[in-house]
Amino acid sequence: MKQNGYRLIILAFLALAAVPAAAEEANFIMPMDGRAPAESYPGQGTVNSVDSEAGKVNLSYGPIPGLGWKARTADLEVQDRTLLASLKKGQKVAFKLVGSRNGHYAISEITVIK
Q1: Tens digits of per-residue pLDDT, 41-77?
Q2: Is 79 exposed, middle or buried (0-12, 13-18, 19+ CB in 10 A)?
Q3: CB-CB contact of 84 with 106 (8 Å)
Q4: Which of 3, 47, 54, 59 is the most exposed place for a label (fewest CB within 10 A)?
Q5: pLDDT surpasses 90 at 84
């Protein structure tokens, strides 16, 4: 019986030791805070309106090939509402989308194109 217990402990140890090596091989290293690295998708568009209270901006934007999105007009959430402070209707912007906590994509960065 004891031999089976030792074997299980050794197998468990070997399995746990292989996990970091497999993650490194797959180029997937978890950040120190435990969150998965966020992949971002760039886009460009025009600001139609800003809703600071809701944390959204309405943009008419071109295709976003990484997501398979066609050009369209939509309200997009921002991760940080302070990103909306300097935006005005009619401005051309470049932005990056990342997955958000609620399963939608949200703007993580947005800059005015001059």
Answers
A1: 999 999 999 999 999 999 999 999 999 999 999 999 9
A2: middle
A3: no
A4: 3
A5: yes
Tell me if residue 64 falls in helix, strand or coil: strand
The label of the residue with tokens 């990103």 reads 83
Q: How far is 47 from 26, CA to CA, in rounded Å?
A: 38
- How far is it, in rounded angstroms, from Cα 3 to Cα 11? 12
CA distance 8 to 69: 49
pLDDT greater than 70 at residue 36: no
Q: Which of 52, 39, 36, 41 is nearest to 88 (CA)?
A: 52
The pLDDT of residue 57 is 98
Concatenated DSSP letters of 3-62: HHHHHHHHHHHHHHHHHHHHHHHTT----TTSPPPPP-EEEEEEEEEEETTTTEEEEEE-
- The SS3 call for residue 50 is strand
The count of residues in the chain is 114
